[in-house]
């Protein structure tokens, strides 16, 4: 074996000593395995959203089909000591969730086909595609999908973790708009999971992310969608009180509008020590009036506004072309709270205090406190997120995302500790007001958060059962190190 490795190593140039697994893959999938130093290897490493995503895998596999993935998984699963990572858009800020040191990274980005069914009712998207490539295809024929609001976000991680889109207050989570997943199991078998076949796997993948297999294709329901009102408004700090009141009112059941999605990002910019609010808002209903977003457009003062008639392709254009020039360390953390007349201001103030007492002292710190409504659960089937179908989180539950970026690894522990503490403080404030919530959104969570406990014991037990059934040897539990694990 070693001799073969060496021989191959000489053939293709330099190979690290511990590259036996990679050599084997290279022999099976010639031209699709990349080593350092090479342009394709480098391009993959430098394409991660957060700086800490830039790890050094022994090799990177760029599969071009489900068959390639199948061959790779079958090969990698043979040896327990082999570790690998699965990567779609590379946007997870958690260390090692979609890249790995000393192991193989399966970078799915060459698998980025996007095809509409003849009747335009289904969009078949390979899991290496990013949302910025999906919307131009759907917008063109007057339909849309429940996808990301950032062009470079991957379809694979977004959908399997839940997925909140511009249309989610009416149409729910991205995962609940999937009609079929094509999945490569630990055995290498390529299966479909849908309402008729592998129903349990279908449900588990809606919120269970990388615990069961490598998703290679996602078939998404489309919905008719004409251009809609949407955009961003930037407010200075003087407007914060009014915007927090407006958000509380927006969450109130008595004024509930399923077509209106608002995401409020209160941001501290360390460079000039300033606070501002970036509001991203959409009104996607078929009846459009300039008053649809008046709740927000009427609040003054504003620094700027881009609210206008738009579509998702246009909305995502700048970020799709984004060069990762401002690359930094990134951390996300999340909690969920029910709405009450005063909880949003209390939670906001706790974040501002954390900025004042700790985060503002970190070099290069930008920190955001981001709030938006929780999407509704499906009414006639189940996902894994643990909401009963009678729940109406779209009207009374708020997802809080704490997002920071900063310069130096030396400051990471301080940032992380303060973020976990802030989450506890917000939860305590919510408990005081009797609006504490169990759910934590996987795609916004920090690595130490207990996501599957947040789905509830029944859902967690279900996910474990499905993992045991489809992956009896625990390949996706033990060999795929990164990600939130059900065991
Ligand atoms: C700029 C930005 C904008 C965002 N906007 C939104 C938004 O509008 N709405 C929202 O809900 N979230 C949003 N997010 C969060 C985003 O949904 C998560 O970060 C998501 O996990 C990213 O998916 P990815 O494929 O890019 O990530 P990756 O880092 O590639 O993957 C994340 C996790 O999913 C697993 N995974 C990926 N692909 C597969 C697959 N094919 N099969 C099995 N497992 C897989 C990986 O192993 C990894 O553990 C945003 C994040 C950023 C950084
Ligand atoms: C890859 O990146 C490394 C480190 O940044 C650099 O030294 C090397 O020249 C690059 N190699 C290629 C082939 O681009
Ligand atoms: C999206 O909107 C832009 C600007 O309004 C327009 O130029 C473009 O044609 C639209 N795209 C589609 C596919 O409708
Ligand atoms: C919703 O609005 C009603 C009527 O204005 C008010 O009494 C109630 O407190 C509001 N609820 C919240 C959560 O703000
Ligand atoms: C944060 O500091 C600013 C400036 O000193 C002060 O005005 C504000 O009240 C502080 N906020 C909190 C929540 O402590």
From TrEMBL:
SUPFAM superfamilies registered for this protein in UniProt: FAD-binding/transporter-associated domain-like (SSF56176)
Pfam families linked to this entry: FAD_binding_4
GO molecular function: FAD binding; oxidoreductase activity
Signal peptide: 1-20
Domain FAD-binding PCMH-type: 53-225
Keyword set, alphabetical order: FAD, Flavoprotein, Oxidoreductase, Signal
Family that this chain belongs to: Belongs to the oxygen-dependent FAD-linked oxidoreductase family.
Descriptive protein name: FAD-binding domain-containing protein
Organism: Patellaria atrata CBS 101060
């Amino acid at each position: 074996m070693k001799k073969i490795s060496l021989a191959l190593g000489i053939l293709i140039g330099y190979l690290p000593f511990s590259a036996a697994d990679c050599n084997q893959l290279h022999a099976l999938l010639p031209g699709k395995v990349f080593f350092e130093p090479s342009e394709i290897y480098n391009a993959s490493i430098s394409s991660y959203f957060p700086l800490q995503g830039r790890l050094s895998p022994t090799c990177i596999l760029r599969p071009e089909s489900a068959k390639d993935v199948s061959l790779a998984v079958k090969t990698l699963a043979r040896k327990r000591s082999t570790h690998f990572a699965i990567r779609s858009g590379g946007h997870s800020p958690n260390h090692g969730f979609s890249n790995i040191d000393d192991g193989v990274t399966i970078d799915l980005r060459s698998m980025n086909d996007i095809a509409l069914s003849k009747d335009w009712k289904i969009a078949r998207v390979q899991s290496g595609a990013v949302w910025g490539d999906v919307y131009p295809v759907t917008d063109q024929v007057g339909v849309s999908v429940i996808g990301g609001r950032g062009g470079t976000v991957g379809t694979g991680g977004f959908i399997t973790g839940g997925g909140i889109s511009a249309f989610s207050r009416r149409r729910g989570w991205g995962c609940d708009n999937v009609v079929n997943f094509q999945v490569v199991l630990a055995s290498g078998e390529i299966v479909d999971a849908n309402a008729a076949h592998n129903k349990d796997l279908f449900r588990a993948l809606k919120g269970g992310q990388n615990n069961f297999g490598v998703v290679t294709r996602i078939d998404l329901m489309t919905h008719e969608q004409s251009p809609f009102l949407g955009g961003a408004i930037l407010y200075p700090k003087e407007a914060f009180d009014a915007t927090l009141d407006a958000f509380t009112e927006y969450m109130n059941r008595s004024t509930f509008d399923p077509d209106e999605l608002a995401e409020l990002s209160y941001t501290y910019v360390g460079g000039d020590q300033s606070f501002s609010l970036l509001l991203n808002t959409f009104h996607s209903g078929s009846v459009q009036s300039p008053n649809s977003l008046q709740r927000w457009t009427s609040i003054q003062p504003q620094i700027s506004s881009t609210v206008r008639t738009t579509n998702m392709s246009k909305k995502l254009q700048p970020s799709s072309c984004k060069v990762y020039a401002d690359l930094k360390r990134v951390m996300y953390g999340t909690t969920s709270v029910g709405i009450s007349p005063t909880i949003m201001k209390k939670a906001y103030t706790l974040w501002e205090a954390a900025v004042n007492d700790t985060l503002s002292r970190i070099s290069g710190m930008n920190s955001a406190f981001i709030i938006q409504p929780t999407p509704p659960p499906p009414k006639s089937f189940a996902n894994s997120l643990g909401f009963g179908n009678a729940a109406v989180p779209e009207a009374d539950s708020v997802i809080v995302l704490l997002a920071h970026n900063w310069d130096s690894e030396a400051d990471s522990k301080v940032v992380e500790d303060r973020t976990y503490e802030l989450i506890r403080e917000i939860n305590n404030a919510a408990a005081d007001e009797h609006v504490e919530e169990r759910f934590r959104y996987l795609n916004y969570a920090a690595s130490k958060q207990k996501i599957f406990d947040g789905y509830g014991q029944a859902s967690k037990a279900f996910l474990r059962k499905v993992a045991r059934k489809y992956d009896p040897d625990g390949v996706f539990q033990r060999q795929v190190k990164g990600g939130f694990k059900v065991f």
